[in-house]
Amino acid sequence: MPVAFQNLTYVVRSHADRNAKVTLISAATGYFRPGQMTALMGASGSGKTTLLDVLAGRKTVGETSGSIRFGGEAPSPMFLRRYTGYVEQFDTLIEMLTPAEMLLYTAELKCPVSEPLEGKRARVDTLIEALGLNGCRNTRIGSPLVKGISGGQAKRTNVGLALITSPRVLFLDEPTTGLDSTTANEVMATVRSLTKTGITICSTIHSPTQKCLNMFGMVLLLLGGRIVYFGEQGGAMVEYFAPKAHLLTEPVDDMLGNQAEWIVDLTTQANKEGRAEEFAGLYQASSLCQQAASSTQALASKGSNISPHTLAALSTQRGTVTSVWHAVAVMLKYRTKGNLLSPAWVGARIAGQIVMAALAMLLFHGIGQNFAQTNLINISAILFIWGAIPLFNASSYIPSLYLERPLYYRERSDGLYRPITYICSRLFDEVVLTVVVTAVFSVSVWFVLKLQGQFTVFWLSNLATNILGVEFAYLSAGLGSTLDVANAMLPAYGASLMFTAGFFLRKPAIPVYLRWYTYINPVRYAWGASMINQFAGTNTELFPDQEILHYFELSGSCWAYIGYQMCFVVVLFLATWVVTAYVKHAKR
Ligand SMILES: Nc1ncnc2c1ncn2[C@@H]1O[C@H](COP(=O)(O)OP(=O)(O)OP(=O)(O)O)[C@@H](O)[C@H]1O
Fold it and tell me: In this predicted model, what pLDDT tens digit does every residue of 463-489 receive, in sequence order?
């Protein structure tokens, strides 16, 4: 499928002055042919990634004008998802999966459900073979801290993710970033081998080695968002630029056989000298530009071989090809087991609980059956701690939730799932663990402290507080513009709840202008449920003629308090969903 773009201009609101607009791509005309690899080159900041993103339909801000045709068709978002693949500059992989699992997981979410699993496995096997991943197909991907596959293998796995639906056009953004030159050449050789299938490939590349540059058929060179060269790679490019080198005030080093470095040096120097416009003008006036314009026109007006029925379906289809239920099932299949078996994942979630339960049992053992007046505040205190502190347990893993954002954004852009799918499957993992852990610790604490009332109330109240903490962790990780902001939210909210729950300061003593907050305070309801469970019907007096529940203004059924807690669980779930769906920190 050829890609042709004419007079493509991209304008965005300036970072520096919100009232001004800047043109990042100016009147770009060019094309990418099937079975050919085109390099988007240029000095740093020249607009390579911007042009790639505009062509791939990945821009979320700014205005694009001009025309883009894929096989003669103006692409809809679903068309782009169906026929193109995009490899991001930085790898976004799931560390606990193997490359084979990562590819199959993506295939199950990206390919139609009607395609049998065997067909998807066959796609994975073909890609593993083509990308040279056989040696590591069953090795854990790992992370910078837990070594897994190598950087080159991770990059090739990332390329595989973009290829899983057999796209006709592949975009790559700086695929050699972070790789040594040998590995970079290997990765690019693998990518180049894909052109045999007839796929159209366009890749931004910053400073390629000569060997790497030789793999490309065409080069599109940008300077200040303008095309300064679009033509064949190799001798033609050198011939074009050689007479222009003398225009520079500061001469660049001799080529010494390294065209790639020479071209980058020359254009960077031209940029430094403010000659972007001059070089763009020279290209505009060249015969190369005329040839490019007529070839682009021919490719843009060439009819596509996609049936009208498919085109109509693609223009109306929703953002994903699988249903929410299917996607949730796939997420559970690949990610839940890995999470629940990961010591790091589980450890971060239960460490706080272990410490809290151990301290409660060591310090407060047996106090639940001692209704002596001097002990009542001790009981109230441990029930308060048990109702409030779990809210903070989730803060320990907010950083890991925050750091997962790039993966989530990439998978959303690739159309793997919807926000509700992500949030349901992730919270499912958390809730499964929370149910088990709170049951174990609640039983231990309940019996060691010899608490009174119904165990179920004590446990459910603790479970609800823990789930609220988890939900708030996801909410703050989604809301925080930076990791520090996300980290600060949960402690700040938790502290506000503790101060106004009515234990440190009784409800009547809370100033009227803040008393409303006690009604929307889940900690008060968690503590209240346990207090009523412990003291209801005992007529225990904290002071003469002052029954303890009356003193703290806790009344009614403990089940009603648990009901209120559950309402908070639902409200926070909805808030987390909305934030996950609509708050986007990554604008591109
Ligand atoms: N909103 C904006 N306001 C002003 N300048 C912007 C804005 N957005 C992007 N830019 C600038 O646009 C230019 C193009 O950015 P782009 O990321 O496309 O460059 P690049 O060629 O891919 O660079 P690199 O090789 O360093 O990744 C950069 O100079 C960038 O600072």
Answer: 999 999 999 999 999 998 899 999 999
DSSP assigned state of 83: H
- Give residue-wise pLDDT tens across range 401-457: 888 888 999 998 888 899 999 999 999 999 999 999 999 999 999 999 999 999 999
333 lines ligand 1 (CB under 6 A): no
**Pocket of ligand 1 contains residue 40 by CB under 6 Å:** no
Residue 330 Cα, ligand 1 centroid: separation in angstroms?
37
What mean pLDDT do residues 39-53 have?
Answer: 90
Percent of the chain with pLDDT over 70: 97
Closest-lying ligand 1 atom to the alpha carbon of residue 14: 3
Cα 282 to ligand 1 centre (Å): 23
Q: Which domains does the chain have, with CATH numbers?
A: 3-316 (3.40.50.300), 342-582 (no CATH)
What torsion, rounded to 10 degrees, do the Cα atoms 166, 171, 174, 179 define?
10
Share of the chain above pLDDT 90, in %: 53
Rounded CA gap, 202 and 192, in Å?
11
Q: Does ligand 1 have an atom closer than 6 angstroms to the CB of 215?
A: no
Look over the chain and give the mean of its residue pLDDT values, rounded to a whole number.
Answer: 89
Q: Is residue 15 in contact with ligand 1, taking CB distance under 6 Å?
A: yes
Could you identify the atom of ligand 1 that is nearest to the CA of residue 47? 18
Residue 290 main-chain phi, psi, to 5 deg: -65, -45
Give residue-wise pLDDT tens across range 379-402: 999 999 999 998 888 888 888 888
Q: Are 587 and 61 in contact (CB under 8 A)?
A: yes
Q: Of 320, 325, 326, 330, whose CA–CA distance to 101 is shortest?
A: 330
User: Closest Cα to residue 71, out of 267, 365, 304, 319?
Assistant: 304
Ligand 1 atom, smallest distance to 50 CA: 18
Dist. CA 353–CA 343, nearest whole Å:
15
Nearest to 388 by CA among 495, 460, 473: 495
